[in-house]
Amino acid sequence: MRRKIVAGNWKMNGSLDLVRNLVGDVKARLSGLDNGVEAVIIPPALYVESVKGLAGESLGVGVQNVSQWTSGAFTGEISADMAKDLGCDWALVGHSERRQYFGETDELVAAKVERVLQSGLQVVLCVGETLEDRERGEAETVVSSQVASGLAGVDEGQWSRVVVAYEPVWAIGTGKTATSEDAQSMHAEIRRVLAGMGAPSKQISVLYGGSVKADNAAALFAEPDIDGGLIGGASLIAEEFMSICRSMPASAKD
Predict the structure, then answer these.
(1) What is residue 51's three-state secondary structure?
(2) 216 Cβ neighbours under 8 A, 6+ residues apart
(3) Is 253's pLDDT higher than 90?
(4) Positive or negative, the Cα torsion across 88, 129, 4, 111?
C-alpha cells in the first residue's frame, strides 16, 4: 500500500503567531481523522524548531530546501544533516521556485536529493512543466527528464524514503489547476519512468500540487495514481488544510 500524504509548504510565509495558532489546531483536528493520511508541515527554516515543538509525533515536519554540501564555508546555507539534527522528517528538493528564481539545474537537484537521503531524511522531489512546455507538447518529456535525472543517484535501499510531487508550474499560485484527468495522466507517466529506473514504482507516493484547495482535492485524490498533495497557500489556514486532509479517501492504493 502506498502512503497518503498531504504536505503544507508555507514558502516564505509565517510568524510565531501563525505557528502557535495553526500547528496546535491542525494537530488537534488530525486526531479525529481515520483515513490514514500523513500530514506534514514545511515552514521556513527559522520556524522549524517551533513547529517541531508543537507538532509532536502526529505531524511530520520538513524544510523547504537544503544545500548540496554537507558543511563548510557556505554562508546562509542549511545542510540536510542540520535539518535532521533539529528533528525534521522531510526535505523538499527542486521546487519550481528554486529552479526558476535560484537557477537550480537538474544536476544540482540530483546532488541535493543524494544529500537528503544520506542524512536519513525523506525527500520530496518536485517536478513540473511550464505553460510553454505544455503548449509545445513537451510536458511529459520535461517531467520525465526531471524525475530520471533528479533520482538518478538513489540506491536500492533508499526508495522507501522517496516521494515525488508533480506541480505544473503554470498552476502554482495562479488559481489554475490541472484537471484531475490531466494530473492522473502525468502521475501515471511519472510512475512509468520510476519503473523504468528499477524503482518500486507502485510503492512510491506521487503527490499533486498547484492551487489545490478543499473544493478540488477530492476529485484529484480519487485518481488511482494521485496519493496526496503538496499544498501552498491553503496550508496557511488550518480549516482549509484540514479540509484537504479530510478529502483523502480511506481506501488504500496499490
Answers:
(1) helix
(2) 177, 180
(3) no
(4) negative
User: What confidence tens digit (pLDDT) does each residue in 154-187 have?
Assistant: 999 999 999 999 999 988 777 777 899 999 999 9
What's the rounded Cα separation, in Å, for the pair 228 and 245? Answer: 9
Name the residue among 93, 115, 91, 114 with its Cα closest to residue 104.
93
Distances in Å between the Cα of 113 and the Cα atoms of 52, 150, 239 are 22, 7, 32
Strands 4-9 and 37-42, sheet pairing: parallel
Cα 171 to its chain centre, rounded Å, is: 15
Residue linked to cell 535501499: 157
- Tell me the three cell numbers of residue 24: 496546535
**pLDDT at residue 107 greater than cutoff 80:** yes
Helix axes 180-196, 214-221, angle to 10 degrees: 50
CA–CA distance, 224 with 227 (Å, rounded to integer) = 8
The CA dihedral of 200, 90, 2, 134, to the nearest 10 degrees, is -80
The pTM is what? 0.96
Q: What pLDDT does 165 receive?
A: 98
252: left (phi over 0), alpha (psi -120 to 50) or beta: beta
pLDDT band at 254 (very low <50, low <70, confident <90, very high): confident
C-alpha span between 28 and 25 (Å, rounded)? 5
Helix, strand, or coil (residue 127): strand
Q: Which residues are catalytic?
A: 95, 167
- pLDDT-derived band at 251 (thresholds 50, 70, 90) equals confident
Segment 41-57 shows an average pLDDT of: 96
